[in-house]
Design a protein that fits this description.
seven-stranded mixed beta sheet, globular
């Protein structure tokens, strides 16, 4: 109060005085225009802005009801110099001009409501149509017509801020010209559109949670007779699992397509159709999986045995298991391995017990322990499913099982090995519908990714991947093949086994019992006019020689080879008897990789470097070991670690990430290979000097980013 008195005493207006003055000015400005209220008693004027700007409604106003054409003429001259008044008058002139051109036109309404006049004016201003004179009327009328296109989902996306009016009008025009719904047109042309935000807005509008995740969409897929894959693609819908009788659950790219919904209702003969919006990326990935599922269900390669599980772990581990329970136990083991995301299941007799372990994220973890007397029964059941000789227990055997787990076709490779305690079985699970990442998603650093993409687009060359078994080489190979134009190029592979099937790629399975080896398959492929060749592995000198010759005769060749790092690939080829001159001129790039586990997102915490060093010492990692690897952990710096929780089976890790070392040969490096006395160490130093990043350096980058731990890096790359 004293401060206010002091301000007044000094001759400066107080804040309340300023507000009163503004109100007086606004009243003086709007007073000459209040005759509009007399014409419409129900019309409300707030602070006089309605008199200046015109009504914010969609009602058509007759000429007699309009505000004066030139409201500034009735505003006192002294007030026009006020900046606020001048700005209000300018806006009034613009809206008055636009209203004159659109007063006689009927606004198009929609289920989401017609756009109010204020939005029309604002949108016209956004498009730059706010000039005076004849141009204002022409552009205003044109934009008025365009806004009439914004109905249904288009209006919803604009209102929720997921799409600009300009982009919505453009897509609406495309949809009208193509004769499709707005969401279909949006899915086809996603330029400058955040589809995640768009489908989130659609979900809020419909009150339904959309499907964004590809894996979740595939998990909810269900096979149904009334929707074959071709019609699913045509109508852009997929059947989902529903727990309610008489309800057909469907995922649709365009949930507003009433024709498609009506067709699905009639075709499914369901009482109710339940629609879930699905992101286009998730839809097309799930559609590919749906095609594979239908193909296998209709008699594709192999017999797929449905696996149904109604047992718990306690049921499996009870002591009184009999031979009648064995099929259910095997089903439980397969189902549990699939649920855990295991790459392999080990069934191991130990004498007293039968131990079942699953390899999850590269590490074996005990799953269940059964009585030892069940070992022969379980081995016999698995061998029957794999078409192996049940009576033969003295010789190793190999077979395969095709099963359906949660409607997913899983190919299981079975290997039996006689031991002193009985037959040890290892089952490798290959999910034929598993998502194969694009090359941009496998974790290559930007520089190495650009180099690899350049080499893949070349007409010829030899690209070799190295790493131990289970290091992700096959995934990287398939990612490379997926990046190739398979329509314009003939892509042929020879593999052992064919783990995943790629559309547009001609894949051959090695069968040494029939005499079909990698070398024999490659020899046959060269007579098939190939452009791109993928050889599963250069196991021997003959295969390596042929792969080199194929790359030199104008083919792009991919293969794998066992070497410790990318530099070792060159040395390995020379050791296999390939001429150094041919190695230097054929190999365009070698990539070495390993897989490290990544932190579980649910149990991360931050500690200082002292705790990290203490944990490493407890795990048997000495300071000398860290020093030899070039790992320096500052005691005072914070580091991200995990504690372990139910989400990660208390391991602290969930999932794996590849670390890479990529070597692209240039003229100087080729000269070193051809030169006398090839020295691997000198060659490696020269490659490092040219910017080659080692796997250890890549892994330490992931540690700094909080993706993995020093302990995991030492475990995987401790001998690098």
């Amino acid at each position: 109060m004293n401060a206010s008195r002091e301000t007044v005493r000094r001759g400066e207006p107080s804040r309340s005085t300023a507000v009163e003055d503004d109100a007086t000015i606004l009243a003086d400005v709007t007073a000459p225009l209040t005759h509009a209220t007399a014409l419409d008693p129900d019309r409300t004027i707030v602070d006089g802005t309605d008199a200046l700007f015109g009504p914010e409604s969609d009602e058509t106003i007759s000429d007699a009801d309009q505000a004066p054409a030139t409201p500034e003429a009735e505003v006192p001259e002294a007030l026009r110099a006020n900046p606020v008044v001048a700005r209000l008058l300018e806006e009034a002139k613009r809206r008055s001009a636009l209203a004159q051109t659109t007063a006689s036109e009927q606004r198009t309404t929609s289920t989401f409501g017609a756009p109010p006049a204020s939005e029309t004016a604002a949108a016209a201003h956004e498009f730059g149509h706010h000039e005076t004179g004849h141009d204002v009327g022409h552009e205003g009328r044109r934009f008025q017509e365009e806004l009439g296109l914004l109905r249904g989902p288009a209006r919803a996306l604009v209102e929720r801020g997921a799409l600009s009016e300009r982009r919505a009008v453009s897509i609406s025009l495309q949809a009208r010209d193509a004769g499709v719904g707005f969401m279909r047109a949006l899915a086809a042309d996603r330029t400058n559109v955040d589809m995640q935000l768009a489908y989130g807005a659609i979900g809020k509008t419909l009150g339904v949670s959309p499907l964004f995740d590809k894996s979740e969409a595939i998990k909810r897929l269900v096979e149904c007779d009334w929707l074959p894959p071709d019609l699913a693609e045509q109508w852009q819908m997929l059947p989902l699992r529903s727990d309610r009788d008489g309800v057909a659950a469907i995922a649709m790219i365009d949930p507003f397509d009433l024709v498609a919904r009506d067709w699905a209702h009639r075709r499914s003969a369901a009482q109710t159709v339940e629609i879930t919006p699905i992101h286009p990326d998730a839809f097309f990935e799930a559609l590919r999986r749906y095609r594979a599922l239908k193909h296998e269900m209709e008699g594709g390669d192999g017999m797929f045995v449905p696996i149904a599980v109604n047992w718990t772990r306690a049921d499996v581990e009870r002591a009184e298991l009999t031979h009648l329970d064995v099929p259910a136990v095997v089903n439980y083991i397969l189902h549990r391995g699939y649920e855990q995301g295991a790459s392999d299941i080990h069934v191991e007799p130990t004498g007293e017990d039968l131990l079942v372990r699953c390899r999850v994220d590269g590490v074996l973890q005990e799953e269940i322990k059964l009585p030892g007397r069940t070992a022969n029964m379980l081995a016999s059941r698995i061998k029957v499913l794999a078409n192996l000789d049940v009576a033969e227990r003295r010789m190793p055997q190999d077979g395969r099982i095709g099963v359906l787990i949660q409607d997913h076709p899983i190919d299981i490779r079975v290997s039996s090995l006689p031991t002193v305690h009985g037959e040890k079985l290892v089952l490798r699970l290959l999910d034929e519908g598993a998502l194969r990442p694009r090359l941009e998603e496998i974790g290559l650093p930007d520089r190495e990714l650009r180099t690899l993409l350049d080499k893949i687009s070349a007409p010829f060359g030899l690209i070799l991947l190295s790493g131990p078994t289970g290091s992700g080489k096959t995934t990287t190979l398939y990612s490379c093949l997926s990046s190739i134009d398979r329509r314009g190029r003939n892509v042929v592979t020879v593999e052992d086994p064919v783990e995943y099937r790629l559309k547009g790629v001609h894949q051959t399975q090695v069968d040494e019992n029939l005499g079909l080896t990698f070398a024999g398959g490659l020899r046959a492929i060269l007579r098939q006019d190939p452009d791109v060749i993928m050889v599963g592995e250069c196991r021997d000198a003959e295969t390596a020689q042929m792969a080199v010759q194929a790359s030199l005769t104008g083919h792009l060749v991919f293969s794998t080879i066992h070497a410790n790092d990318s530099v070792g690939v060159v040395n390995r080829l020379i050791d296999m008897g390939v001429d150094p001159f041919l190695v230097a001129n054929s190999v365009s790039m070698s990539v070495a990789q390993r897989l490290v586990r990544v932190h579980c997102a649910h149990c991360q915490t931050v500690v200082d470097g002292r705790d990290v060093l203490a944990n490493l010492r407890a795990e048997g990692v000495s300071l000398e070991k860290l020093e030899s690897l070039g790992i320096d952990i500052a005691p005072d710096l914070p580091a991200i670690v995990t504690l372990g929780c139910s989400h990660c089976r208390h391991t602290g890790y969930a999932g794996r990430q590849a670390v890479f070392e990529a070597l692209a040969l240039d003229d100087d490096l080729r000269a070193m290979i051809i030169g006398e006395g090839f020295d691997v160490r000198r060659f490696r130093r020269e490659a490092r000097a040219r910017g080659m990043q080692s796997m250890l350096e890549h892994a330490l980058t992931l540690v700094e980013e909080g993706r993995t731990s020093y302990s995991e890096v030492v475990r995987v790359l401790g001998e690098s």
